[in-house]
Amino acid sequence: MLEIFKVASEEEVRVEADGLRRTVTEVFRKMGVPPEDCGLGADVLLSADLRGVETHGVSNMLRSYVNGYTSGSINPRPNWRILRETPSTANIDSDGGLGIIVTPKAMEIAIEKAAASGMGVVTIRNSGHLGMASYHAMMALEHDMIGVCMTACPPLVVPTYGAEPRLGTNPIALAAPADEEPPFVFDAAMCTVAANKVKLAQRVGAKLMPGWVTNPDGSPAMEAIDPPETDSMRDSDMSLLPLGSTRELGSHKGYGLTAIVEILGGIMSGGGIVGMANRGVFGHFVAAYSIEAFMDTAEFKSTMDEWLRLLASTKPAPGHDRVVYPGLPEFEEQNDRLSRGIPLHREVVDWFRSICEELSIPFELVRGTPS
Fold first, then answer.
1. What's the pLDDT tens digit per position in 115-140?
2. What is the spatial distance between Cα 151 and Cα 189, in angstroms, rounded to a whole number?
3. Computed from CA positions of residues 82, 276, 245, 54, in that sequence, does the dihedral angle turn out positive or negative?
4. Stated pTM of the model
């Protein structure tokens, strides 16, 4: 994550992962989520925070989920079900359930099908937000499989030459195992900057960089500007730009990738066009590919080691210390945060203190918590 989004040291509070996990689990329980699902929801959020993906961790997402549960827009006890199924595919209706809880179950189905058929693909309609997409993709790693996750989101992104949003941020994640090296894990929105990073910019007082958003008239804002003062991008007069920002810089490529996710995660799920859906409705796509179905697994993983080391050994450009590959910084960040605690902004800690008091939950964010 870019330095401008990180919490300043003077605003940072380090909290222990175990205490944060217990607290988040209890919040889900108070929302009426079944006990067996509370820990799963907490694990998805904590995985994001441990890997340094604050955009999809507790800071941004938990309060959004609480608002969704209390308003009734998220179903805490969904009767999710498989609507169509073949030996290698399935389509699920999530019944309005939260994606961070239903999507891991869909990925388990995809993994089972991949073990039997070589690959498994599952689409999910009528779902809520799935959190960090790479969490679901990484579930395949321990099975010596390649995992993929995509999610079609409500509209925030303008198409190239467009002046109003028609597409979601629509992230794509892919995780591939290696032998001795940390796995390759790519996870990124198909717009120039993720919507949740705008929230982080608001919290830390950072400007939005040129080419991230539109001006109020829909033209690309190619100068640094302040983030909107609204709680959500949906309520602002700005929209997000696809990867590339402008046609001259390749925005047609980001636009096309965003549209591909809409097709696979949205339209093919049977849930309609997510880009025209109500706020809070998402469509998801998960897939698992058994490496052994294509080649010898040991050979694949050793070749991955060789390739990842080749990337990491690339001569760095002036002003940079090293070259990394997708997944390596997050792997290193997780090790650091397990040791030193997860850095939260004081405003987030204050919110936890408030919600714990409101829900009669013990406040256990102990490390470095301000009095």
1. 999 999 999 999 999 999 999 999 99
2. 9
3. negative
4. 0.93
